[in-house]
Design goal:
The structure is a homodimer of 317-residue chains.
Chain A (H helix, E strand, L loop, with lengths): L1 E7 L1 E2 L9 E7 L6 E8 L6 E5 L14 H15 L7 E6 L10 H16 L6 H16 L7 H6 L2 E3 L9 E3 L6 E7 L5 H6 L4 E3 H20 L2 H7 L6 H4 L6 H10 L4 E4 L6 E5 L2 H17 L4 E8 L5 E2 L2
Parallel strand pairs in A: 5-6
Antiparallel strand pairs in A: 1-4, 1-14, 2-3, 3-7, 3-13, 4-6, 7-8, 9-12, 9-13, 11-12
Helix pairs in contact in A: 1-2, 1-3, 2-3, 6-7, 9-10
Chain lengths: 317, 317
Amino acid sequence: MKARAYAPATIGNFAAGFDALGMALAPLDGSLLGDVVEAELTGRNRGGLLVRGPMAKSLPKNPRENLVWHALDLFSHRLRRYGLEPAAVRLILHKNLPVCSGLGSSASSIAAALTALNAVYCEPFSPETLLEMAGEAEGRVSGGAHYDNVAPALLGGLQLLAPGECLTPLRLPFFERAVVVIVHPELQLPTARARAVLPRSLPLSLCVAAGSNLAALVHALHARDRDLFSECLRDLVAEPRRKKLVRGFDAVQAAALEAGALGCSLSGSGPSLFAVADSRREADRIAGAMCDAFRRAGVESRGMLCRTDPEGARLLP
Amino acid sequence: MKARAYAPATIGNFAAGFDALGMALAPLDGSLLGDVVEAELTGRNRGGLLVRGPMAKSLPKNPRENLVWHALDLFSHRLRRYGLEPAAVRLILHKNLPVCSGLGSSASSIAAALTALNAVYCEPFSPETLLEMAGEAEGRVSGGAHYDNVAPALLGGLQLLAPGECLTPLRLPFFERAVVVIVHPELQLPTARARAVLPRSLPLSLCVAAGSNLAALVHALHARDRDLFSECLRDLVAEPRRKKLVRGFDAVQAAALEAGALGCSLSGSGPSLFAVADSRREADRIAGAMCDAFRRAGVESRGMLCRTDPEGARLLP
């Protein structure tokens, strides 16, 4: 009655896909990049939540404000709807991802927690139900259910969220050799603040351009058209408004493109940026150029080379 | 120094793809559905434009207001840019398509005219240049360059227009056996009037939903996922505003879906509707149900069964 689950970091708002496209990340060096949650049914003993790991200090002191606690709350609520009485659970969150970084830290915690809980209860819920709960939990922190981080955190891959009655994300193909560069500056940008700069409405022509740009990106991925992919890997909606919140953005993006990136934009709502490279060698050069540009803007940053994580949330031995 | 060109009718605003997706049509019975333009260099004699065909009467009396004349004007202007002096040309337009029908009548005339002109001048212009001119000519009638009719009219197939520096439409795959039902009611709806009911801006959430719906439709076509295609074959942007301009719309759409259509929406800006069927047999039933529904609303209509025209504008012997 004990399980330990991992869920990867993710890029939400994957450039062309504001609120609609997200990618799960796996570091090239084989390490893990994401939070881990242990869950244990404690029988009649009291449950609780412990937070450990390098980023534990940046989380709220009160465990009940922790997203993992919200995830447990939603999970228990759903069990009761099915006529099951939830037992007390002891949770340990190993907080590895930096918060407010644009790397899907909330989604990683939520996906790991739900996966661990589903395991200790012998899998009562389908992936679809877990996704629904994860979106709801994410909504409690970012002010509205968004699935572009939780879907890849749970399911892996590059996921397109299509609006519809049933929430089934669509797994898109991706270039096998492409390397994703993540550059994480020493800045924090709360999602709510990044949301606040977005307009409530968009001109019809921009709406058409953004939609067809995303559609063309999807076509490029299926057709394995690298040049078209590169042309469409851009954010017409959020980036123009959000980039001013990230010191050095223009210079870092320009450095990435100058160094050969197929595209470069904010990861999630920032402040991290991601870029897509053709190969590991190019990725190394691009990461260096981006970190240099941040440094010239007076911001320290860290680069990482990743591929798509095909699996998403999973149990660890 | 004489050429005769045909260009097919088209569905613009192909449901999910407002202003971005269009399909060229070829009737199942092997007949042609589109306008024909003959062009002849007259040497030193005077040029001119004659209009013939069943729909000739619905065009402006003054040939200089005719779109084919605009196409000639743009073509000649472009020749001069290249240092060539255009000769006098005699044009005959066989106007077969009904105007203001939603079937891309303007685009058909323009595409046929440009193709015939390019032929008599020994192909000075590339397809890209012809497309640019066609969009400009279309803009003179609909109040802004739109390519979702002219691109398939010139190039055939199902074409996605992606925004970008170079205007290269993307040919999407389509279900091979699918049949497209066109129902053309005895109503006229000028494009400018249908444009006037559109909002200038859309809420951000609707913009995201419409964009990801189009992207999911493109994914469905590549993945040959019929159910997903059916779910995404809907217009979240224009149809809700425009349908009130077409008497009986709701009943006709409901009849199509009830009869098994994968989707049904306005063709272009209406008043014609199109529906997609799995097979010829289904298409027959759907066309019948749609015409019946129009009749109950007091509108006579005509149904046609089509496939995608793979070729687009072409010379006739």
